[in-house]
UniProtKB/TrEMBL annotation:
<feature type="transmembrane region" description="Helical">
    <location>
        <begin position="66"/>
        <end position="84"/>
    </location>
</feature>
<keyword id="KW-0346">Stress response</keyword>
<keyword id="KW-0812">Transmembrane</keyword>
<protein>
    <submittedName>
        <fullName>Heat shock protein DnaJ domain protein</fullName>
    </submittedName>
</protein>
<feature type="transmembrane region" description="Helical">
    <location>
        <begin position="39"/>
        <end position="60"/>
    </location>
</feature>
<dbReference type="GO" id="GO:0016020">
    <property type="term" value="C:membrane"/>
</dbReference>
<feature type="compositionally biased region" description="Low complexity">
    <location>
        <begin position="212"/>
        <end position="226"/>
    </location>
</feature>
<feature type="region of interest" description="Disordered">
    <location>
        <begin position="212"/>
        <end position="237"/>
    </location>
</feature>
<keyword id="KW-0472">Membrane</keyword>
<keyword id="KW-1133">Transmembrane helix</keyword>
<feature type="transmembrane region" description="Helical">
    <location>
        <begin position="6"/>
        <end position="27"/>
    </location>
</feature>
<dbReference type="InterPro" id="IPR036869">
    <property type="entry name" value="J_dom_sf"/>
</dbReference>
<feature type="domain" description="J">
    <location>
        <begin position="157"/>
        <end position="210"/>
    </location>
</feature>
<comment type="similarity">
    <text>Belongs to the TIM14 family.</text>
</comment>
<dbReference type="InterPro" id="IPR001623">
    <property type="entry name" value="DnaJ_domain"/>
</dbReference>
Length: 237
């Protein structure tokens, strides 16, 4: 083998390696949809470009080569339109207005909503509707409206917003707040007013719980320091 042939082979191998690296880098940093589109287009071009070769093989009566090339062309076309081989799934609507058609009823299985979450969401929604009836949309979204509505919230109203009973502890308050915020958070389709209302209800109940705990601690301290308790302790000694 001559030195020129060796150098040409080495140069070809290096160029193929570099081209492969660039191709892999393009695939890893490109949109998958673009990669799939380019792949289908490449297969289609190869299939169309193989038609003259197929005609040549048939003219030369090379039946084995013609059969292999024809099978490869058909396989390329199948890969391009592979979705046509799969049965299409029937459309299943998420909800149906009015009476449900008979052909849709076997495929429609509505999810069972959480009754507790639905009740709390209804309470907050009623409060929001009452608020919206008093103010128009522009005033409701302005900063002045938010400041005007930022007054202290009563414990009864806070418990109604969070759906809690009287005497709920801090852990129950935080749990109810977290579950309700998952329904009405602005990022999930809710509004800033609903999120603000729930946050105020949580703050009001936690503040009341902290105040009650502090008062109970103060009473316990005073009871421990009272003369009757001290005298009882000495008598017991």
């Amino acid at each position: 083998m001559s030195s020129g042939m060796v150098i040409s082979s080495i140069a070809l191998a290096i160029s193929l390696i570099i081209s492969g690296i660039k191709f892999i880098d393009w695939i890893s940093h490109s949109d998958p949809r673009v990669v799939m589109r380019m792949g289908r287009l490449g297969l289609l071009i190869v299939a169309v470009a193989s038609v003259p070769g197929l005609m040549t093989l048939l003219a030369l009566q090379n039946w084995t080569g013609a059969m292999l090339l024809g099978a490869a062309m058909l396989l390329a076309l199948v890969v391009v339109k592979w979705r046509m081989l799969l049965p299409r799934a029937r459309f299943r609507p998420m909800w149906v207005e009015g009476e449900m058609p008979a052909e849709v009823r076997p495929y429609y299985q509505p999810p069972v909503p959480d009754a507790e979450l639905a009740r709390r969401a209804a309470i907050v929604l009623q409060d929001y509707i009452a608020h919206a009836s008093r103010h128009d949309a522009i005033a409701r979204n302005s900063s002045d409206e938010i400041e005007a509505d930022g007054g202290p919230m009563s414990a009864e109203e806070a418990r109604a917003v969070l759906g809690l009973a009287d005497g709920a502890n801090a852990a129950e308050v935080r749990k109810a707040h977290r579950r309700l915020m998952q329904l009405v958070h602005p990022d999930r389709g809710g509004t800033d007013y609903l999120a603000m209302k729930i946050n105020r209800a949580k703050d009001a109940l936690l503040r009341k719980s902290a105040t009650a705990a502090g008062a109970a601690g103060a009473r316990a301290t005073r009871a421990a320091k009272s003369p009757r308790t001290t005298h009882a302790g000495k008598a017991g000694g």
